[in-house]
């Protein structure tokens, strides 16, 4: 056994040596950059970074700022709504396409196409669609419904849901593809057995198919959640954070603090809190997925 380990160590040596620059770059850029950000979040950095320690003052100020609290509230509303609806819509679309429908490739491409667009384009498109002067509201009033009102982006109380519509339009296609891949991996004998036993299709999905797709759901969950936490382009393109700060999100708060208000310390503190949020999601997932497989092995 001991003699095999050196041989395994030197297998594919060319590939391992070639990967060293990439690994070093990743460690320097990502790990080093993350550590640098966390360290300077405890300093009084303004226009330029400076090593003047102030402890937790930046974090105390952060959590005492109304704008940051509203950003967190908006992220919670957008995130929970997005998480639930994108999973429901994506799974239903995948289940329908899995029925071997005609023109499946065309339908799948059309649904996935919005995901290929940038968030900036998506935001601008839905800004036009939801604009009361020439969007949905204008079209409906032109058809005779003079009292029809639909201007979510101009109503501070529901503006975040206008952003949610655009997010769902773009993200549902990705979830649909991932779910469809999971459904196509289910053994057809499962469906045959359920039909023989007279189990309704909806019960088969809920009690048999969905539990079997657990790895797909977890992977999709991580992808969606990390995308939610760092949502920025869509907000900037669609609402600019307005009306007022009604659609402010943490990523935009970080950008404004660092590049508009020249307050790097506050921006670093906010970005560190975003990193902590992502870590809370990703670390348990990594432990469950890879730690569990290692123990089972």
List keywords for this structure.
297 residues, mainly alpha, MetI-like fold, 2 domains, 14 helices, 73% helix, 0% strand, globular, membrane, transmembrane helix
Helical/strand content category: mainly alpha
Within CATH, the superfamily of the largest domain carries the name: MetI-like
SS summary, helix count: 14
Spatial separation of the terminal alpha carbons: 17 Å
Unreliable stretches, pLDDT < 50, 5 or more residues? none
CATH class of the largest domain: Mainly Alpha
Please state the average pLDDT score.
88
Percentage of residues in helical conformation: over 70%
**Architecture of the largest domain, according to CATH?**
Orthogonal Bundle
CATH topology of the largest domain: MetI-like fold
Name the beta content range: under 5%
Number-wise, the strands total 0
Annotate the secondary structure layout.
Elements: H1 4-9, H2 13-40, H3 57-63, H4 66-97, H5 104-116, H6 119-129, H7 136-142, H8 159-184, H9 188-196, H10 201-212, H11 214-229, H12 233-238, H13 250-259, H14 264-296
Helix pairs in contact: 2-14, 3-14, 4-8, 4-11, 5-8, 6-8, 8-11, 9-10, 11-14, 13-14
């Amino acid at each position: 056994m001991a003699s095999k380990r050196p041989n395994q160590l030197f297998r594919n040596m060319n590939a391992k040596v070639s990967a060293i620059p990439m690994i070093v770059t990743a460690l320097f850029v990502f790990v080093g950059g993350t550590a640098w950000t966390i360290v300077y979040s405890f300093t009084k950095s303004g226009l330029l970074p400076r090593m003047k320690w102030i402890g937790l003052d930046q974090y105390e100020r952060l959590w005492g700022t109304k704008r940051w609290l509203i950003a967190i509230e908006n992220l919670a509303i957008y995130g929970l709504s997005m998480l639930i609806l994108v999973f429901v819509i994506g799974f239903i679309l995948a289940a329908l396409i899995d029925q071997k429908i005609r023109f499946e490739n065309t339908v799948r491409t059309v649904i996935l196409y919005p995901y290929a667009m940038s968030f900036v384009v998506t935001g601008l498109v839905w800004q036009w669609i939801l604009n009361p002067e020439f969007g949905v509201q204008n079209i409906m009033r032109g058809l005779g419904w003079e009292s029809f009102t639909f201007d979510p982006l101009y109503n501070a109380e529901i503006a975040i849901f206008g952003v949610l519509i655009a997010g769902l339009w773009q993200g549902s296609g990705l979830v649909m593809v991932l779910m469809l891949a999971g459904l196509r991996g289910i053994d057809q004998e499962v469906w045959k057995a359920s039909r023989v036993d007279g189990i309704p299709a909806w019960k088969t999905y809920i009690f048999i198919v969905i539990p079997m797709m657990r790895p797909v759901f977890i992977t999709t969950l991580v992808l969606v959640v990390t995308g939610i936490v760092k949502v920025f382009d869509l907000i900037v393109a669609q609402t600019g954070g307005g009306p007022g700060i009604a659609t402010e999100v943490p990523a935009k708060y970080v950008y404004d603090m660092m590049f508009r208000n020249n307050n790097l310390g506050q921006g670093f503190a906010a970005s560190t809190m975003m990193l902590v949020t992502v870590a809370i999601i990703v670390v348990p997932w990594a432990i469950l997925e890879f730690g569990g497989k290692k123990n089972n092995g």
